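A quick aside before the break. I want you to see a complete sequence-to-structure record at least once, exactly as it would be stored in a machine-readable document. Don't worry about memorizing anything.
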Amino acid sequence: MGGYGGTGRDRVGGFTFRSVAKRMENAGFCNESFNSLQSGTSDEDMVEIAGATLDFSSTDDVPPLDRDYVSGYTSYNDVVKGANGSPKLVDLLDEPLPGVGTYEDFNTIDWVREKSKDRDRHREITSKSKESTWALMKSVSDAFSGWLLMLLIGLMAGALAGGIDISAHWMTDLKGGVCLNGFWFNHEHCCWNSNETTFVERDKCPQWKSWAELIIGTAEGSFAYIVNYLMYVCWALLFAFLAVSLVRAFAPYACGSGIPEIKTILSGFIIRGYLGKWTLIIKTITLVLAVSSGLSLGKEGPLIHVACCCGNIFCHAFTKYRRNEAKRREVLSAAAAVGVSVAFGAPIGGVLFSLEEVSYYFPLKTLWRSFFAALVAAFTLRSINPFGNSRLVLFYVEFHSPWHLLELVPFVLLGIFGGLWGAAFIRANIAWCRRRKTTRLGHYPILEVLVVTAVTAILAFPNEYTRMSTSELISELFNDCTLLDSSKLCDYINVNITKSSNELADRPANDNVYQAMWQLALALVFKMVITVVTFGMKVPSGLFIPSMAVGAIAGRLLGVAMEQLAYYHHDWVIFRGWCSPGADCITPGLYAMVGAAACLGGVTRMTVSLVVIMFELTGGLEYIVPLMAATMTSKWVADAIGREGIYEAHIRLNGYPFLEAKDEFRHKTLAMDVMRPRRSDPPLSVLTQDSMTVEDVEALIAETSYSGFPVVVSQESQRLVGFVLRRDLTISIENARRRQDGIVSTSRVFFTEYTPPQAPSSPAPLKLRSVMDLSPFTVTDHTPMEIVVDIFRKLGLRQCLVTHNGRLLGIITKKDILKHMAQMANRDPDSILFN
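That is the input. The structure line, written in tokens, reads:
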């Protein structure tokens, strides 16, 4: 035990790479045998995961390590040495080494080093800008590149979201029939220009034919119903099969929501290929198929993944983002805001979502750029007009009646329901996903998707509220009934209508309303159960829309109940004084909206961003207080049952190295209790500054799998000099053997600033001081772990060295902290897969 226990060549934080890969089979990644879409080429980095070949092509996340690419990489300690002269990356060469300063897959970036490199680069550009006009132009171009990148991300994400919305709407309607004027028209567009539609049956026109009409020539009767039923199920199974097959064959990382992984990536973890071009292409296609299949999932979470893929791909076109992992994560934070902007048509809510929910490092500059990118994306989506209503969202509504103070009681009740359901859903879904990981169920992802799709389609078709798409269901539930509505939810008995259609008085419910209530109650139970097993399957699946649907159904049921109570009992104390006969007191659509916010808040634990998203959806600023009351109540109730939201729970389930900023470390342990080596372990593996040969260093690298080694004055003194990464050390030695004369196994390795005179017969020395970090973070052995955890969170450290009176005692890595926190919470510390 010793060195930096991170990801080595063959091991990932103490695990062999194959054992990690085996455990990854069911840890949120698609787990069958995936074949790469591309043939093997010289610039591909093929990594085998669970017997599967995944394409982590260099063009996905990191460009080829050519000379131009690495020329921007300077070591972190260049800042320290800058005062002494012009440092070089490796003393033995006049040019940088390809690969030095980069990171391996499943590794954590060094935020401090990356920010230092960016400051170095910026200082150099600023100083050169005063020398010539060309240098000044390059400086201006560098400053402008961030805004140009935001523009490109917004345009591409908006265009993709518009295409996904239009395609999903058409393919969803395809399960019910086809348009004779053109198969590419969905149901609504097909009947737009028809002169033969009626007011009551405005969705029926001769140009749109159901499958029963096309196959047997009639739309009436039990046989026609059976034909439509079978076609609905067959189309659903076909769409689901295509979705899971494409994910399995070409882009395993395209499955799931993507938000837990994006949160982990934004915290500094590297997952090659997760934001690559093939993931983008396959996720875009399969997202349309998965939504169209009728599964209880949404496209909003995956759209955030799609937008982040766009951001990562465009980063390769800009030098300062291509060469710096920390700067790239600033772009990905803005891209997450773009994803929410196009998913909900809520640009401000998207920026707040990125700040509140997914981002790990969010400087003020990123806030401005996120705002600009979200604006561009929303403008692009509005220009495409995917819903044909000149709105950014499908369920834009406007309520015309104000809410009363006493209505806060049912709003808070909806918040309690949302919190209870959110906590129950998280526990049930995590239990199901854990079962999927630990049983044979996880070995058959295609079969699981097809079975769940078949059950969903068979149970959903008889009920019109589960047969329609979830977005259309939410739109109908949010709707404020007017005289022009033909929905069963608005089939009231019209009594003494004297007001305008915008302000209908509360009316007694007709039989159709009560029938709709029963159907909605069944739909509520169905959605609550089926969403548990759907989220986490090997298809793109979002959770926002299903959660909102559950809350909207519960809210509409409560809203109609309150409306009828107010109509028949307006003389009760709770209604007296504000709800007189003939007044429009209760708006059931508002209750649906509040319920949707409450359930989504209970599942995700969002607060500020959720309220802003919801009022951007509805356009009603006056309903912020009900939304705030329900959202805050749902968070309090859910937090009382379990502190984790759904995304944090999946991060922990999959063992990602994510230090949650919201968690408090309350234990009274010290750094010496967590550091390695422990008392029973072998001594720490270290390098000495001037007494080791190349052969000794190579032997240490071969015998260990640590990602870095402390450098000390000598084995006896153990006085700390610095820290060197395994990858940089390996690349430097290999390069020196190839390109520098006289470097042999017996050559001495020096990490000192000056090399002492060598005997004429001795081989040439190898100077590696410039690949060493001269100022590694250190703490004393009696530093409270509470402070150490804060240092890791706020500085994004990979490792921290532990000293006593200047002598090196041990090392604490991010994985050690995560294991210690899991142990303190009575969880399995070995559930942390990576470092």
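Two observations worth writing down. The first helix runs from residue 17 to 24. The first strand starts at residue 11 and ends at 12. We'll return to this after the break.
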